[in-house]
Known about the structure:
Organism (chain B): Halobaculum saliterrae
Domain 4Fe-4S ferredoxin-type (chain B): 28-57, 144-174, 176-205
Keywords (chain B): 4Fe-4S, Electron transport, Iron, Iron-sulfur, Metal-binding, Repeat, Transport
Helix content of chain B: 10-25%
Protein name (chain B): Selenate reductase
Shape of chain B: globular
Helix content of chain A: 25-40%
Strand order of the largest sheet of chain A: 5-4-22-21-20-6-7
CATH architecture of the largest domain in chain A: 3-Layer(aba) Sandwich
Subcellular location (chain B): Cell envelope
Number of strands of chain A: 34
Structural class of chain B: alpha+beta
CATH class of the largest domain in chain A: Alpha Beta
Oligomer: heterodimer
Shape of chain A: globular
Distance between the termini of chain A: 31 Å
CATH superfamily of the largest domain in chain A: Dimethylsulfoxide Reductase, domain 2
Amino acid sequence: MKLNRRDFVKAAAAGTVSTLVSSGWAATQSVDPVTSVDNPLKSYPNRDWEEVYHDIYAYDSVDWTVCHPNCTQSCALNFYMKNGVPIRAEQIYHEEEGSPGPGSPGGYEEAGVSRHWNPRGCMKGLTLHRRTFEPSRIKYPLVRKGWDPEDPSPEGRGEDEFERVSWDEAIDLIAEKMANLEDQKRFHVFNAIKSDGLITRHGAGRRLASIFGGCEWTEYDWYADLPPGHVITTGYQTSDADASAWRQADYTIMQGKNLIHNKLADNHWLQETRERGGKMVGVYPDYSPTVQKCDRWLPVRPGSDAAFALGVAHVIIDEELYDPDFMRKFTSLPLLVREDTGKYLRAHEVFEDHDPPEGGTEGQEGLAHHGGGDDWGDFVAVDADGDLTAVTREEVGGETPADTRLDVDTEVTLADGSSVAVRTDFARQKANILDSYDPETVEDITTIPADALRKTAREFAAAEKGQWFTGEGINHWFHSNDSLQRTIFFIQSMLGNIGERGAGYYNYSGQYKIELLDGYPAYVNPDGHSAHGMYPGYAFAFFGGEQLDPHDIRGDFDRDLDLVPQGDADEPVMPEGADSYTMSRPAVLWTMNCNLLNQTKHQEHVIENFVKHPDTGNELFIVSDMHMTYSARHADIVLPVPSWLECDYPDITVGPENPFLHMDSGVMDPIYDTKQDGEICALVAEKLDEKIPPEERKVDSYREYFAEFLDDDGDVRNYIQEALDAGMTTRDIDVEDIEDGPERLQLKTYPRVPFYSQINEDRPFYTKTGRMEFHKEEDRFLELGRSDLDHFESPEGTPYGTNAKWEEAKDEENPLYHDEGYQFYYNTPHPKYRTHSSWGMTDWNLIWSSRDFGSTNADPEGTERLVDDFSFPTGDGETNDSPPLGEAFVEMHPEDAANIDVENGDYVRISGKRGDLVVRVMVSERQRPRSAGDMGQLTIWHGWWPQHFPDDEENDDSIKGYNVTTNIWLDPGQETDDLVHKGVFGDPNISDEVEEDLAWHGATLEAGYEETVWAPTGTNRDDLVDVEKYEEADWWPGDARKDDLVSDYIDGSLQTDGGTDGGDS
Amino acid sequence: MPQTYNPQLGREQSYPYEHREEERDWHWGMVINTNRCINCNTCSFACKSTWTSGEGEEYMWWMNVETEPYGGYPMGWDMRLLDDLGPDETIFEAAEDGEQVRGYVAEKEEWEYPALGDDQSHGEYPTGEVVESDPHEEQYHDMWQFYLPRLCNHCKNPACLAACPRQAIYKREEDGIVLLDQERCRGYRRCVKGCPYHKPMYNPETGISEKPVGCFPRIEDGNVPRCVSSCIGKTRLHGNINRGPDAGHPGGVSSAADGRSPINYLVKSDEKIALPLYPQFGTRPQVFYMPPYHVPPEFLTQMFTPNVEEKRNDWPGSTYEESVKIVQQRARDPSHHVLGILQLFGATTRLIETYNVKENRVKGWDRKGKKVVDMPIEEPMEVREGEQWTNQP
């Protein structure tokens, strides 16, 4: 039956609705006598029946825990228990008496913040119990039937049946494989996220990798959430503030960040800025849900974001709206840069009596070129009298030499008598920006009208406190992540919008902020043992079985980098001198808390060339998960873990946009044969002691490091306490304190304001110059022509010339677009009702995620398909069928849909350079149409499971999902081992001031690879795709846009003059 | 049929039952600030997990958030009724022979897509232009969407109550909550048909109808409903809509503020900032919305005012469209007093009966006169001094 909204309206008008009534739906027809009620508006005789609802509401007890997926927020929730089962959840209010929950008499008392933080916890937390009981749960340990320790037969991954094994068997198989490794580095632990599940969950895997001598890496790096522009500019991981700082802003620019969908619990802080007089401007290619909250929307061409920021900078420079004093004090803008070498001029080069840096300046060991230590020589500026003056790394902020000139273009005489042309950093940026990024040119690049850009720039410059958000959407674009981010910092520096509550530049892309728990290394790196780091992007680019051209994978578009074939893992292309990472192939890869293969970009390549390739170096793939995910289906050993509601051992978590330290613990008994990651690791460690003779171990006993899990009198809370004691942020917090609810971390400020000390206490930034650096002197940036601020067209996602500056790109055509017909951007933003793929199968979340196509009954055809698809490979590991509640869809503009004769609900095939998929269409006016001037935009929300997509009957390659067309490109710009930055933990500015028993005592500046800080990440969203009609839907919920009634309704004229039968009744 | 004065319409209208002579001292009411709503549907999940997770209730969302203009649960519920009603005609006045209320039965399929149109917007893509709003300049988004949380309005002229042939639906004397007697109902579905907001729902498993209960077990304990306490957008404030400026101290406690409730201020003061949803239906709904200030007022006039040419009620402005525009301006730039009240949204799970707003402090008291909120409007900034504390992390 074809049903749609229009038909309902018409059917009802024609009085034919009864034909639609199903039998169970029919009303009772008989009428029986009733006791008369006089006037139910005034009173009602017998209200005893109301107990019905009191009984539904009633519960036996309340217990609480914390929901902390990779949304980064961590929310404490009360679970209402009846007969030992959680029946519903409710957020716990801070400072609240009288409601049930932790502490006494209720609410959490110690967090030390105001009630403005109430309440926290979104609809996902409220269905944690439904997720716990849903059919995709893994119920016991499983081993793939085709897998043998001696012969892994990877071709069968994802297809073979599983068989149930005991925990003993599973543990033994893992430990045996580990014990037989010739090189311990080939044991790899992979987590999605860092700063949660720290001690008794996947953090235990990192501890195991450390004492075993293995590797560890994270999805955060590899998945391209890293915002490298932050590190390039400030040397700091990411400058995110507590959400409560957002409200203080007078002006907010939201660029490509859909905060409405992906920061739910603390979103209100942003919405409240406008009530307090703040203005909000959005820069998005589509009418993102966040746009509705913006006073102004600037529609931007995807991939051109950096040009917008450069245009804003143009207006600020051209109209002299900047704050020279701030620029002098806190940035590299007054420092001189040599025109010949592109390096910052050093004081010893011009002043004869000025000592060069201790480590020398030349060659391999020269500190000036290779990070390490903190002495790169001193820098040079021009003072008010026009004289050269040395500026040391410590002479920042108020100690900056007075009145240095910002705009200098001159020649200087060096100490050896020669002369060299120099310009200040500001003169360089100014010349380039004034030359290339006037608002009219920027309009050509971005499609944003020049006058609107000017207006926005002037308003933003005039605002007292301005904040700017970007996020994952832009980080995943090959060039934007670097050039846009650096330019935003440039603007914020010109306006003094750094280091102040309500001003700043934020990203919030990921649960990476383990820095907030700075005692954590005491647990994961015990006794100085530390797992090897990994360049995550390389793993999937190079660890395949097949010979691929690494130039293609790496994004080495000019093919001028000296690459080593990927088969040679010992000597891959690596920055020289770096030793903190490894390229060891993961012979054993163990993922915890992560749906690696579902979220991987270039999915087809990863499955075919890494997971299933006969020559893959990966001999054992272990997946620990709650659910039979796409990744788990491809594993050799599947280990079931409990949901947060079922955890025996407590664990702690922190997040990047709130000041809380949370500790969770389960509220119910596990319903399946599950174990927490920590316990699993402990059992493996114990087994390793049996299998590896002491002289071959890296530590005396592996078991010793997990004794609290294994000893009868063990208490894992001791590990938590040790980690708390080893950090500044938690030094006075006891485990007992957080058993009663969250506590506030002990930080410099509340709310946390990035760079508060730099701006207010004259501390250096974590760069060579001690300042926010805009010109970069590292060789790799110079080689690539990216040492200054510029916009580059995407390597793929553009109709113009690829991978070039506008001047060159504008007159070129991207052949992929013009000749091959790939005319759509492919946009995969983060979803609202899921976190990545988590909650992907939870009934209510799936219904709502599926929008027009989500229902308790859903598509009758689709229902069968979903059930079939979800039916797990038969065998002992069979799971139940999933509830058929909805399916994936792609959003497409009505014009573009009509162009290929597609209506709402029809199916299309999306094809890219790397793969294709079939998916249902949701016609959506907010998407960018091709008529906007360049390409159309297709949006598929990220995190669907493969079984939410139909099969492609004509092209069944068995690989389905939203990531088959996306790509893995490594940016050579990020392959530097000399980029100076802060490590994750600690603060070199004061590392000797803190007590010796702090985990990061003595921390120094670092250079090169650092997990979650600096790495070639290698996954991008610059994809172009084509779209064609696949099949007409035989069922669809309708397209209201075509209805006259609906258009009258939207005009507001339905009742007054647009009604079809108004007034005749 | 008895006549009753409807202040939302500013005129008399018919209603099948006589009203009480005096208003209740306490009546359930709610204000929702749509400008803060982020459509997370946490309210919907909170409600469903509390009240409708049983058999036959799978499709029921007593609380749902719709994206206007394309959302609708059940599909197209409001446009169908608007189409059926003449101007200035309530659903009671438009009732057909043998019925008390004009309505229609939404069929099973119409109920089954609660997320239909979720997050969708309306309008032409602004090629070469921008989209901008400033209600003070009467400028609104040419392309728009907004989120409309929908729930039972616990109306003062409830249509469900009027429609029920068994008198199984009643309005509680103590708090005005409208309940459907689960023991007396026989599933005739007249309430399902009659409620213009489509919140009574039929359970095909039990054969009887159900309707939202206003979270009365929580109200009885002095707590706000689940959809309010769960709202992470802090969009809602619940309380006693009938407590006006002349009311005394709650619980007779003189240290508590006297006078009106915070929601009464937002709805009934000279600074009115919240409007009822489809007052033209004539049911006197008691959920009031701070309208979205970026949306064209023509649409909002249809949705949040009596929508007739002659303005008869006491709202600001000389036409209803003007009322909307004024309220949009107030919502965009609230006065300090309103800003203070907005801090009470989501501050506590306790019912706030009275309040006061000072320069940087807002307080609230419950029905017994106990202080339940005492918070700053602006959080202080804290800085930890000492050499070892730097900005890290």
